[in-house]
Amino acid sequence: MSWWRRIFSPNSKSEPKTNHQHPQASRAGTYGIHTLQPTVALPKPPAEPVALEQKKTRTKKATPVEADLPPLTGRITGGHVCAFDVVGESHYQAALRKLRNSRHMATDNDFIADIVAEPENAHDQTACAVYIEGFKVGYLPRDAAADFHQQIADMGVTGLWRFETKAKLSGGWDDRPMIGVLLSLPKS
Q: Which of 52, 84, 100, 101 could form a disulfide with 185 if both were Cys (CB 3.0 to 4.6 A apart)?
C-alpha cells in the first residue's frame, strides 16, 4: 500500500476497521480524505490597530494640468544658446516626463517656452513662471526674474504678460534622473 493511502485512508491496515466516523468529519473523494466541518462558526480575531506611522500610504503621481495662459505679449529672439537654467523643476517632474515622452529626444528636443508674470505669487511679486506646451515646468531664478521684470517695465509693458523663447530639456536618464529645462535667454 502506498504511503499516501496509509496516511489518509481510514481503512488502512494499521487501524482497525470500523464504520463509525468522527462526528465532525465527512468523507470526500475516492481516496478517503477527511475534511473537518466546524459545527459553530468561529469569530475572527479583532484586527490589530495600526499606527499612522506604520500605514503604507500610496501617493498618486501628480497629473500635469494645462494652464490657461495670458495672450502672447512678445517673443525673445536672437542667437542665444539654450543655456539659461530654470529653477524648481523638481516640483514639475510629472509634466516634464510627459513632455519628454511625447517626443524622440535624440532628434527632437526643441520646445517653445512661455515666460509668464505671476504678480500675485505669495513668495515673490516678481516671479516668472516657465511653461512648455501649457504645462508649468519651473521658474526663472529670483534675481533673474527681478531683472526680467525691470527690462519688461522699461519697454512700457505692465500687468500680466507672456513672452516666448526657445527651450530644451536636459537629463532624465541614468546618472541624471531629474529632468531640467534650459532656456534661450542671455546671461546678464
A: 84
Other CB atoms within 10 A of residue 179 CB = 21
Domain boundaries, the chain: 3-36, 74-183
The pTM of this model reads 0.65
Distance CA 95, CA 5 (A): 65
Q: Tell me the CA distances in angstroms from 177 to 25, 89, 171, one per residue in order.
A: 61, 12, 6
- Residue 29, sorted as left (phi over 0), alpha (psi -120 to 50) or beta, turns out to be left
Span 37-55, average pLDDT: 54
Measured between alpha carbons, how far is residue 128 from residues 34, 39, 145, 159, 166 in Å? 76, 73, 6, 13, 16
CATH topology of domain 74-183: Alpha-Beta Plaits (3.30.70)
Contact 116, 161 (CB under 8 A): yes
C-alpha cell, 15: 487501524
Contact 139, 151 (CB under 8 A): no
Confidence category of residue 171, pLDDT binned at 50, 70, 90: confident
% of residues, the chain, pLDDT over 70: 65
CB 182 within 8 A of CB 167: yes
